[in-house]
Amino acid sequence: MTLLYKLAISVYHILIWLSAPFNGKARLYVSGRRNWQVKLNRQVDMNARYIWIHCASLGEFEQGRPLIEAIRNEVPEYKIVLTFFSPSGYEIRKKYPFADIISYLPADNRKNAKRFLDIIKPEKVIFIKYEFWYHYITELQRRSIPVFLASGIFRKNQVFFSRLPWGKWFRRILNGFTHFYLQDDESARLLSDFGIKKFTVCGDTRFDRVAAIAKSAKEIPIVDKFTRNKPVLVAGSTWKPDEELLARFINENDQIKYIIAPHEVTPENVSKLEQLLKTPSVRYSMANESDIHQYQVIIIDSIGLLSSLYSYAKTAYIGGGFGAGIHNILEAATFGVPVIFGPNYTKFREARDMVRAKAAFPVHGYEELYKELTGLLGNTEELEAASERAADYVKQNRGATRKIMDHIFVKQDRLF
């Protein structure tokens, strides 16, 4: 099985290299890892004590951010190495000020794992949510370096829990972790059923992150003028199927103001969205305060604004639910904004919880979208109740960061 894993990793990286001339993300993936040892050696302080924190991409970074900033503030004797697997995480956060070294994670093979750990010599390692790299975990275990999984969540259909022979091999990776900090009891039961007892159920650090976002939300003067006290629907991280659905509603309902933040903000994608709309729209980059009130729709063609935009919303539509899965719904919920999304949401615990609480509303097509939006925006009492349920859900689930920090940095001797 180890040989097959090595082969799969090698084939994956060959395919990335072959596609790099034709694909922007693949190109960044390859160029970002070129000469990684030289780059890393230049940045390392040989006298420093390092904690290594690894995130797959941008979403996991936001999930891990409360921990990173708590470590920076509470245990400043450590320096932080932050790694990403994906270009979409690294390229956006490569200048993040709370990490001392920010790097791509070198490909998972035995040689790279040894060299990477030889260079940074971490005293503790934290992986966020998932990322189970065999050679890195094995080498950390061999060196007796504690490695933790923060905000971990497991599902019974994952390969770790298969009764077939390869399930046992993948569980070896899990056994390499020192401790798991889990989001829910279901994950704890899955680990326990296979003899893994090194876990604490403490929730999801994303709740702490979105609570901090709500406190630091920025006022956006042009959006203030745009809304003019009308109800606002903010659509965040939308894809083509979401936009086609929303455009029909927008074109038929002009009593609402709309802010759309597509997942892809390329000029080509924004232009396609504009073509779907039959009502006055303007790109954020081209808007000005003097005539913004004339438009029905603002299309956000930049990044970094979405979390603050939710503070203007009466309700929100979160994209991705007609594809692989919905994007972050908690950034809206923390402002007390009920959310609507497509049908592919069931692998997200917070979405399931909010649907049960009637703070979130899945839709399968236009008729359901129309029903949910008009039901919320046309009924003040129901909207206020759904808003209160959304805000309460976030408040009740905060605190994971504190629990993890206390376990790793205060109670570690007693736990391990």
In short:
This protein is α/β, with parallel strands linked by helices and 416 residues long. The protein has 2 domains: 29-203 and 399-415, Rossmann fold (3-Layer(aba) Sandwich), CATH 3.40.50; 216-396, Rossmann fold (3-Layer(aba) Sandwich), CATH 3.40.50.2000.
What does this protein structure show overall?
By secondary structure, this protein is α/β, with parallel strands linked by helices. The chain has two domains: 29-203 and 399-415, 3-Deoxy-D-manno-octulosonic-acid transferase, N-terminal domain (Rossmann fold), CATH 3.40.50.11720; 216-396, Rossmann fold (3-Layer(aba) Sandwich). The chain contains 20 helices and 14 strands. The chain has helices spanning 2-19, 24-33, 36-43, 58-74, 87-93, 110-120, 134-142, 165-175, 185-193, 206-215, 221-227, 240-252, 267-276, 306-309, 330-333, 349-356, 366-377, 380-396, 400-410, 412-415, and strands spanning 49-55, 78-84, 101-104, 122-128, 147-152, 179-182, 199-201, 232-238, 257-262, 281-283, 297-299, 315-318, 339-341, 360-362. The strands form two sheets. The chain has a seven-stranded parallel sheet, with helices on both faces. A seven-stranded parallel sheet has the order 10-11-9-8-12-13-14. It is globular. The protein starts with a helix and ends with a helix. Residues 412-416 have low confidence and may be disordered.
